[in-house]
Amino acid sequence: MVTRDGAGQDRQEPDWAALADEFGLVPVPVDFGRFNDFQDLDALVETVETHEDLTGFMFALAANLDNDPEAWENRTLESYLDALQRFTKSLNSWARNNGQAVPVQPTWQLMARLLLIARTYE
Hints:
This protein is mainly α.
């Protein structure tokens, strides 16, 4: 598959499936439990409490991007990371505006919330 890199140059992507076959690798099915239902991300983010939950939430985010890209303002890695950085920088203001304490120690849920908000942050 040919993709474009950040400089607009064509780049040949490896055939990952062929490489996996060549090395005898097989996909391992992963069950993310409640995170397999990736449609209601706002409800799911409220359930994140552990690093395992965060892993499942990240799975749900990726699945949501694949299944509903129109719900994402920041569809490229570059725009997503830019939004994530800008939102994280403004976290104190966001917390105050939402009547929440400014976090001193981040939680797994806060990390999930950052990832979710970066999806549409402008």
